[in-house]
Amino acid sequence: MFRSLLRAAKQFHAHERDNKSIYTAVRSCALMPYYGIRDDWKREQSLRALVDDFTPHHTVPWSDVVTAVRQAFTASSKLPACERLDRAFNTLRVLGVHNELILKHTEKGLFSSKRRSDDITFRVGDLVRIESVGRGVVCGWHLPRLKYANMKPKYMVLAHCRKGNVDDGRDRMRVYTVEASRLKPAKKREAIKNPALLFYFDGFDNGRHLPCAALAARYPDDVVSIVEPPVVPSILELQHADEPQLVQFLQSPNATVVYISKAVLEAKWMAEAGPLAKRELEAAMEVYAAGEKSAGRDRMRELVDKHPDYAAAIEMLAMVCLDDSMSIFSVSVMSWAYMVDKAEESLQLFQRVLELKPYHTGALSGVATSAAKLRQWDIAHVAAAKIMRIEPQSAIAKRVLSKVDEALYYMF
After folding, report:
1. What is the structure's pLDDT at 285?
2. CA distances (Å), 376 to each of 191, 332, 340, 366, 373, in order?
3. pTM of this prediction?
């Protein structure tokens, strides 16, 4: 039984290592929602949960899987041997069912990259207008190759949800499959709104939706990206760098450079309203830290009213509101309403900081955390994905993205 489980687990691990999973197939627009997909996805999640730190974004070493399987056999238990053997058989059965499903999807080409040809007009992430439907975003395409089929390319387009409109329910989670003759570039270069954007895209920039990793791997030729060499500046460059350069240095592979860049940026932002405003903010922070939270919060509000463009003060007030929303332990309706109100206020304040400083990593982390607390997964996802592009090792972003992954399952 132990060897049989190891063989099945090894195949599962190989699939995960090669990004062959229900999660990847759904997020790459290769697999559309079908009856029973939630059960298949839940089974996949449960298999990952058998090994610590095993997630769609992190494939653990094979040695960790072997250790987990061995511990399940050798650990002491009050259960009778027959019961433990039954559980082992059940795990083996679940692994077999899942591995067989992934093999079938592999044979159908669901995990293969699709290369562009001259017949393909639009790219994944392009904003388009569907005839008789409205705006949408391209999330996939295919070129029929059957002998008697129409050889014109077909595009999968996620439609914009019109809030409050009768079509909102119809367009929600719906992907239209249309020919190029029914599509034309959208004139309005604004991001579309649809709950299903979470599945396929990581944000919006320069008039295009940014494909998630799975979608980008499925359509590699559609990804518009500029690969830049790693940034490793000298100490002199760090000392004299301006704000955009310091933001770029945050992506350096050198941890010391990242740490110094953050410190210099925070110092610049702290001092941009003048020395008097800086002293007032530091004094308000000291009052709040000393336990006089109400007085400290009020002083921060006064400072923000006096300097409405002082990003450091707005960020600190947002952090205070977020801290207040997390310090309510009672489960009464009143305390829950207060918690939600403070979380919403913190989200608005962090977003206000981003309007002033689009690459403020602290504000991005605050937006991601506040939105996740409010279960506004679309906002949390975009913020966390942007943090990962700026600061790939961010623990907060990884934690928020894992929560978003859990939320995706319940959106089917």
Report:
1. 93
2. 17, 22, 12, 13, 8
3. 0.80
